[in-house]
Design a protein that fits this description.
alpha+beta, three-stranded antiparallel β-sheet, 3 strands, 60% helix
Length: 67
């Protein structure tokens, strides 16, 4: 019982670490996109990279429909 509980705690910890690392990678990619395109960007957890457009904040992957 104790071993399975410890394994569960370790698994949750590894998952949390992985999610944090991926969020950091995505945030860095969003900042890099803003730097390369000279646009105002921000990273929203759960949504992704947002780009400031005249109509407001738009997800980066939906920008083709906005332009």
């Amino acid at each position: 019982m104790k071993a399975s509980r410890a394994a569960l705690i370790v698994s949750v910890g590894v998952l949390a670490l992985f999610m944090t690392a991926m969020s950091l990678v995505n945030w860095t990619g969003c900042a890099w996109y803003g730097y390369q395109t000279d646009r105002t960007t921000r990273y929203a957890f759960g949504v992704g990279c947002m780009v400031k457009m005249p109509t407001g904040w738009t997800p980066r992957h939906e920008m083709r429909t906005e332009q």
